[in-house]
Design a protein that fits this description.
Blueprint: H1 3-19, H2 23-30, H3 34-48, H4 50-86
Helix pairs in contact: 1-3, 1-4, 2-3, 3-4
Length: about 90
């Protein structure tokens, strides 16, 4: 594995842990795709630093379990905003 990929995987994991970030937020911050973030954390980081990979995985698992709630809140805000515009 190339050095810059290894370094990116570690930086991505640290960013996720420190900011409690989602895959989407992390991808946007680093200018890479969501697939790249997932592959860096789920596969590449296991060979580089298994402990760091496990910590990042915990954050991503929590975010994944809560995403339906965030989606519902976003939809609620959307309709409340539309209702306010119509009033």
């Amino acid at each position: 594995m190339k050095d810059y990929i290894s370094e990116r995987a570690v930086r991505i994991a640290n960013y996720i842990i420190q900011n409690n970030a989602t895959v989407r937020q992390t991808a946007q911050s680093f200018g890479v795709s969501k697939s790249t973030v997932h592959k860096d954390v789920a596969e590449r980081l296991l060979y580089i630093n298994p402990h760091l990979a496990a910590e990042a995985r915990k954050v991503l698992d929590v975010n994944k379990s809560e995403r339906h709630i965030r989606g519902g809140l976003a939809t609620r805000e959307k309709y409340l905003h539309q209702h306010q515009l119509q009033s």
